[in-house]
Amino acid sequence: MSDTKRKPEPMNLIGNAPCWWQATMKHTLDSPESLVREYEGEDLEKIGKHLPNISTYNHNFYRLPNGTIILMVSDDDNCSDVYVVDGQKQSPVGIQYDGGVFEIGDFS
Q: What residue ranges do the domains of the chain occupy?
């Protein structure tokens, strides 16, 4: 695990997703970190439900138990950037390291 925090790049990966799917992703993003804070230190891939119909290689979507949709973008090495999804917007919230440890990041 690295001591330095990486800031994920802004993304717009789901602009071509079907309208019915985008409509199911809507929620308030006043504080995206608050939607995932309860899962810090856990393995998001194990507690979330994988959404294979909209996932691709290294870009996997999950629905967390609280209903939040996240996108995990893997670097094929030792971590995945984690984003909260709201329609066509993805807000970076943290990093999940190998071994399944999710950590909220500071992206201010």
A: 31-104
